[in-house]
Amino acid sequence: MRPLRAAGLALVADLAFVVLFATIGRISHTEGVTLGGVLGVAWPFVVALLVGWEVARLRTGWPVRMPGSSTVWLVTVVLGLLLRVATGGGFAWSFGVVTLLALGLFLLGWRCAAEVLRFAVGGLGRWADRAAARR
């Protein structure tokens, strides 16, 4: 897969997970799942995600794979919470912890799964070829 296409798909996946996070939050607090309500919760984290992508790109050069993913995750959480509070949204420490864990699972989880799959498909074959050559 070409790098630009992979980055586009990864960004779409990240955006979808941020919206899923906001949707689950609305459902768990029985606030109703409306487009406006979900976007009202999601927008600070969407903005923070885009900033996180740029920071990761500048630091590691590639926010799609594991080295850049922790930057994307932490910037999304911290800046998203700051934007939420700065614009009148509520904050509780429990919400901060849930945000950290849920977005960690979502933003790091799919990247971990992709790394394992990438190794299983490509790396394991290369490893087996090298092992066979040593015999």
Automatic annotation (TrEMBL):
Please give the start and end residues of each transmembrane region. 7-27, 33-56, 68-85, 91-110
Q: Name one Pfam family in it.
A: DUF3054
Which keywords annotate this record? Membrane, Transmembrane, Transmembrane helix
Q: Tell me what this protein is called.
A: DUF3054 domain-containing protein
